[in-house]
Records
---
Amino acid sequence: MAVPAAVELVDLALKATSAYQRPDLGSRLQHTRRRLADPDVRVLVVGEFKQGKSQLVNALVNAPVCPVDDDIATAVPTVVKHAETTSVTLVRESSPDTPPERTEVPVARLAEYVSEAGNPGNRAMLTYAEVGLPRKLLAGGLVLVDTPGVGGLGSAHGAATMSALPSADAVLLVSDAAQEYTGPELEFLDAAMKLCPNVACVITKTDLYPHWRRIMELDRGHLRHAGIDTEIFPVSSMLRLHAAKTQDPDLMDESGFRELVNFLLCKVVAQSDDLDRRSTSQDVLAVAEQLASGMKAELAIQENPERLDVLVGELTRAKARADELRERSSRWQVTLNDGTADLQSDIDYDLRDRLRSIGREAEQLIDDADPDKVWEQFSEWFHQQVSSAASANFVWAAERARWLAERVAEHFAEGADIALPELRFDERGIAGTVDALERPRTEKLGAGEKALSGMRGGYMGGLMFLMPLSLIPGVGLAAPIVAGGAALLLGRKQLKDDMKRSLQRRQSDAKTAVRKHIDEVTFQVGKDSRDMLRRTQRQLRDHFGTLAEEVSTSLAGSVAAAQSAVKTTTSERERRIRDLKAELARIGGLSDRARALLATTTAHAAVRSGKSL
Amino acid sequence: MNQPGHPAPPLGSVVRLLLRRTIETYHDSPQAVAWMQHNLDRFDEPLRVAIAGKVKAGKSTLLNALVGEEIAPTDAGECTRVVTWYTDAQVPRVTMYPRAAPARQLTISRNAGALAFDLQGVPVEEVDRLEVQWPSQSLRTQTLIDTPGIASLSKDTSARAGAFLAPEDSPSQADAVVYLMRHLHATDVRFLESFYDQGVARATPINTIAVLSRADEIGVGRLDALSSARRIARRYRADEKIRGLCQTVVAVAGLLAQTGRTMRQNEFTALTALAGMPRADLDAMLLSVDRFSRTDLGSATDVPGSDTRARLMERFGLFGVRLSTTLIRQGMTDPGTIATELVKRSGLDELRAVLATQFSERRDLLKARSALLAVDLVLSREPRPSAAPLVAEVERILAGAHEFAELRLLSTLRSGAVKLPTDAVAEAERLLGGEGGSAAARLGLEPEADHGQLRAAALDAVARWQRRAESPMSGRTVSDVARLVVRSCEGVLAALGGGRY
């Protein structure tokens, strides 16, 4: 959320930088301002399908925005955000280079585009649908993203969901009260905890299941056992919608939504606000300090001209240090470069290692069976293994990159409090696509083959991680049934005995195909993760480089100011001291406001928790 | 193929003979003899139907509903952890078969109506199976097998279910499988695939029925929830990929069915009292399970107290309470009628009908299939020159028995590989026994149809498909299909008696 006080403060500081002719400092503030202008706090609503995700979003905004059906599932992510009037926009991102294509459609027709009924397997290739709603809950910048459910979070689109996590401000894992957590759900939670600052579990449909408390306790036990520390919110979307209709406060209490909304506003939005305040305050304080440093140096000389040499000496030494920070030789540069190189080789090794063991297992499987008979089941298994390996590798890379940024900051400031750049991995992420595992050619193609290749179009074949700008990918997420369907067709292929002769050849062909595919994945994913690291490295280098430059410029200014100060006459000196003190007081005021902004972070949240809905 | 005019000997006796011959050939291998003897005995046992599905799909509840008694323990958390067989017997008895120890009898205790088993301290992973012998009409024709859930958090439990239903090295112990699912997940599809027959009947979903379980919850307990669930089941049924995996899909509200078959007088009294409350009050209470059990109704003595209501909710579910109070309000005042209505609406009757047509009527075929798989295992494990005629015999039965040919053709038709008009495919499937093996089911007539009607319809079908088989416009595949269909119709005619034409 754009904190108005923060924006105001940045504007004021910007004015000061132009008044004191320090455009270099101005550009950093401009950047801060741009960041503040993007008020979105993204909350991903994820879970296996038919758990009540869409209904949860509807209940949160008290409007039937996401289509809910007993049978038909959501096919396209729906982004619900604040707007003055209700509107629906369909967004199609074809490639990272061209601007996304946006189409407005009437509100009533949303269901035709986002549900499996109107848009099976997302045939329309929509990236997401955006719904604008005039709601107080969303006015704070809260953006709810209803995602298509995944049939087994370990599947290929489970991996895609995973790669969208770092760009989310919070994740709600939705699971209904019918049963305790399943293995895939817990695995997903575990990975989500590593990638996203706020993860919460929502248990839905508590109105329907008498034993929801038992289920919640069981879930809590599972979470504890897995070492996952998150809150659990039992809710009933039905009760909340009913409560909103009848204005019944008791029902509202029972629905459990008060707590969930509190969590979203006080923890997720407030935390994002806090982050905004903290970073703005830090930026403005740093700018104020640098603006003041020249004047402070001059003031010191004006008051004690005899200490000129000492002061200039100190300043020059400080400047030399700042220059050195800018140079290649300084420690943070070494840390950064070495760290990046280490990281690159570690991640590369990790990926290769994971893929190699999959490859070994795959060859074993091929040895044990006739690849032609089991091919579809096999290739599905194989793709799933490969994509989960790639996403695990990605999670790990993101974690390590963040750790590296902290190390660099430590070395850069040698203990001082230095702002960390906001590392965003969502700019392009892992966007590589790899062709589907190629089926080795056999001399006989069954009748099912044709249908099969048709099915592949829907399944998209192979590994595909796409992270369109900070959104969950909606690319042709085929329904699980479709993905499974291809396997069925081939499973029934009947093979003639005369084909046994070439079994060995088929096995060796299959192995070649597996090796080729692994090679390609290693190459493509490896390149993508190297690119991501390189971008991270550049981001870090530019961030700290600019910081060093600013300090150096300020110190150079201070030296010059100090040196020129000696030349002034006594009367001028008196006046100059007065002026400087007044200017410094003004800058001091700026710092005070920045500090005050920092002080409001937690206090503010406490006030707001009182009035939640 | 058999000569026209000479009806083929029944498949069952052919396979029994094969089993005996195999025992003779392998008389010197105690292991093989024991295995074959076991399968010969199995041939005469009731059909073994396993109930499988993911965790919490409602397997035990459905089993109780089918038996009509609360014998399988059920719970909100994961409950069944050991494969449990339920067979008919004169006297109730529970036997535990540990893996590495002799079988022992367990004491039977009842816990609030349901049976409770105490494993006497034996860890679940060391128990091979439990066998519950229970006097019950419903178990007389089929042995029901309750299995632990697939995709359980406890990997061992899942593995036990997998090892039982789709063992890696031997044919499954179950003749048929009822697969329960809440919605069709990718894991469900994978599991259904694993029932695929690799050997004998070659890729037929003949022995699998899918059940959309907990049907009342799919429509979040609304009064129309079950029609919604039936609609979904219909969609799945029409889906080509799912048709290739199972015979059919039926929606069943297991809890409703179980409660309907075991409803007690005091429950009926409580429901009647509730139905007598002002409508608005009851509706407000029925908004959520918590409201229903916890609302304080003051000291009024004629309405059931909080504890009673909580128990009602557990037995009926939100949907069940909504439905039964509505029924009472509409004038049903007899517990028996309500119970019957609940069972009818739950979809259990439909499931039982499907079980009867798909499994019981095909009993011999399913048993023969299991037995052939068993023989095949012995022949491939212990090959010997003297067994060569047996191998040929297995091949002959598979290729020659029209029952298996029908199965193979059914699965080919369902895969959509044959180019025929849609209604012709539907008719062919029906004639091949896709909707049941009885003459009426095959001919698409009501079960009460008389002999003359059946005969006329069969003759009509023969003529129609004969034309298709001989038409120069039909391709080779279509001709082959048509010829097999004609053969099925002739089978029906032969069974009806009275000469061929």
Note: Chain B touches chain A through 56 residues (CB under 8 Å).
---
Amino acid sequence: MDTSEDILQQAPPGLIPGSGTARAAKPTRLSPSFISWLQAGPMMLVFLAFFLIPLVFVVIVSFWDYNEYQLLPAFSGRGYTDTFEGCIAQLPDLCTIARTYLMTLKLCFLVWVITLFIGFWVAYFLAFHVKSKTWQMGLSLLCTIPFWTSNVIRMIAWIPLLGRNGLVNSGLVKTGLINQPLEWLLFSEFSVVLALVHLFTFFMVVPIFNSMVRIDKSLIEAAYDAGATGFQTLVNVIIPLAKPGIVIGSIFVITIVMGDFITIGVMGGQQIAAAGKIIETRVNALQFPAAAANAVILLVITFLIITMMSRIVDIKKEL
Amino acid sequence: MTETTRKKGFSRRTLLKGTAGLAGLAAGSGAITGFPYVKSAETKVLRYLGTAVNEGDDISKQCLKDTGIKIEYITATTDDVTKRVMTQPNSFDVLDTEYFSLKKLVPSGNILALDAKKIKEFDNITPVFTKGQTPGGKKIGNQGTAPWKVLYLEGKDSKKFATSATEFVTLIPTVYNADTLGIRPDLIKRPISSWSELLNPEFKGKASILNIPSIGIMDAAMVVEATGKYKYADKGNMTKEEIDLTMKVMTEAKKAGQFRAFWKDFNESVNLMASGETVIQSMWSPAVTKVRSMGIACTFQPLKEGYRSWASGFCVSKGVSGAKLEWAYEFVNWFLSGYAGAYLNRQGYYSAVLSTAKAHMEPYEWAYWMEGKPAEKDIKAPDGSLLEKAGAVRDGGSYEDRMGGVACWNAVMDENDYMVRKWNEFIAA
């Protein structure tokens, strides 16, 4: 709220409804908070119509029953009980849903750590080592290259590189480092993490870079003047000030990876379970309530992770 | 002569309809009638929902030329076609779908059966569909959702499949084929004759099946039965215990690293095979052709346990009536009249009315595709590209041998819900 009012005060007259010429002609009694609501209004409506209402429907449908060809609008917990089938009976073996989420969380964690590491240093380089604005722009656009192709093309492109007879394997065999091609290069957890990192590092770079360019350079100079080493400056000045960017980037990456099933399917050779994949299989079998139940579960878990992260950093305050 | 007279009749009718439509439209919309509206009133348009199998551009062009009906393709995967019929029955006119989805589509009431009496070639449809046997009299396996089990309805608006022939046909048959395993003979270097080879440790890390639960489990069942572990009463309608058993065998193989990857999409299967990532996998006929056209040896291997077959056909949306319904009949009749059938036969599929397709094919083409004889001349695809050199013989041989060797049909099981859950478990294992 503070921020929007600040903007209000700075904005030239005429841009704000009810201000400027309009106000001069006929004094209005619109309170600043009402104007703020008005400004946020369109976005709120979009959210309401295309996010909140559909979400409510998903939750409702998740408690419906179904048969082979239609939804039965009667209360039923079947979508949920089916999903958690065997979770107690099979102990100590893990049930399907637990295995699936364990795998999804594992992939999510690996991708998060790696994209954070790479993204942080790319952003650091862009923010502190590239002086010209044009170069900064140009280089960050380069990070979007992985998005220029479709998923199918990407998958087809990895086979000649990582496949059994691919470039990497034949190179390694020729140099004599290995005798047999490495099978785990493709259709494995390795290749899934590789592809996800390749795709989503960009989502880390942008917010972290955004936070970093806003760091007052004199703070860094002050740190040096006070005798801090480069490492101390990094840990005590740059990282704390880049925190909002780090958290926003993390939220991007984690939410995307939690819901991804296409990249995991394609790069994992369809042999690696993903939370999103369960939903897709259910939808394809026309079992919408079961799919909705799984969607609600995924949403709750992702929401918990995000809540935990925003506990660590208060984004609203930092912004 | 009759041909020309009929065509003249059509064009006169088209003209009349066009004019009437135009007048109605002009009256309805007044001055704002734009050019595109005028155009659509002149042509008979049918929205055609289906998978890519039947949807050749050449077919729609020829259809427009012969009948004046403009086909607008809406292409989706088999699953998405079914989803669309359930959720948006008014978004299409003609539906091209597989027989096994009828168990879901018919009870939903979203599709209309067609009247057999209005289908000119109905009596010439291959007995594969109507009697469950080849023209030569070979009995075809009836496990799964075999077309003749779901071909007829008891009445016009009935939701029950009739046990004997009625005039209400759920799907007018168009295209079908017998699927088996694809192999790379250059990398395997020995004869393959059984489905059980899919789980042979010799091919560890080089095998694949498709990740479409309802079809994948049928292939899995063919494998389980071939290994001698179990004999199913009906592979297309397993009990819960049978599903458990099948998935257990497959899960063990998966954990042991038997499978390189599962595939879901035509191109994935082509790439896996062409790159040598897999050497044996469940496959579709045109995918094998595609690999071969890349200059890579690939065989659609006939196996002693038989084929898993599928079939599709036409029906219409429940929203179709009046003139549009007549166009739909006209279109279906055209589809069975030979051009499309020959086109499909040349792609390695089979057409439902053999006699008309034969009339549209060269004798040497018919001999290669349907009679299993060595090609007298180079065999070309409908687009003119070279498929096989002269002297080649079709994998699996003749129509009689291939269709006669069908063991089971794609299916939706009674325990479908349970099966899908077990399939998810298999993927997660």
Note: The longest strand of chain B covers residues 307-317.
